[in-house]
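Session log. Operator J.P. requested a structure for one protein chain; no other inputs attached. Running the standard single-chain path with token output.
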Amino acid sequence: MPLLWQLTTSHFSEKARWALAYKGVAHESRAPAPGLHMAVALWLTGGRSATLPVLELDGRAIGDSTAIIAALEERVPDPPLYPADPAERARALALEDWFDEHLGPDARRLIFHEMGREPDRLDAAVRISAPELRSRLGPAATAYAWVFTKVRYGTHPDAAAERARDSIRAAFDHLEAELGDEDYLVGGQFTVADLTAAALFFPVVLPPEAPDLTAALPEAYAQFRDSVSERRGYRWVEEMFARHRRKDRRAAQQPVGVAA
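Structure written below.
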């Protein structure tokens, strides 16, 4: 059975989880302690990838959410996430790359910046993402999380946080411009472009189908969310999760290679 190595609260991991659920692929999952996950990823992939998610599939360890979806699309083509038309496929993949590069890092950077300013909120996030580690190490686990996010993601300078806010607003601008008057980004159907954009916006929008981070949300971050909550793109993310993300992640799963 495929095995997904992931981080519970990671939006890139949510992208991979969503693809597996959308295709109805039965799988197991493991969540190493955040911070230690880089060593796990390097070990699994033989040094090719230093972060999660990683999917063990058909004897391979596939790092990077984009590569995971590509492998799933080849192995379980139905229901498709890639458009059949070559031009539409190229556009969907270009949009996937755009949101990976321009939204993903800053959505992560901003939430950890605000959590770092409120230790109780960061501690709540550690309890959600690494409950066993928090139980064993106590407050030391949260102190480690503060240092790790500062070094790894550059979360703590105020100027970096402001740039992240601007990037998230720009990502909404891009999403809304690409959508136009349509419900979906490419070809009038749900594709990898829609899944990627919605999954990477999840820490901002926090739809009920996604991991619940409400206990860890600082007031300043909640205020930022409120400032964008009336945007069409924000409501679109909610709609994509409601339409296409299974609330019960174990429901209707099937062995790899069987069409959904």
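Operator note: DSSP finds 13 helices and four strands in the chain.
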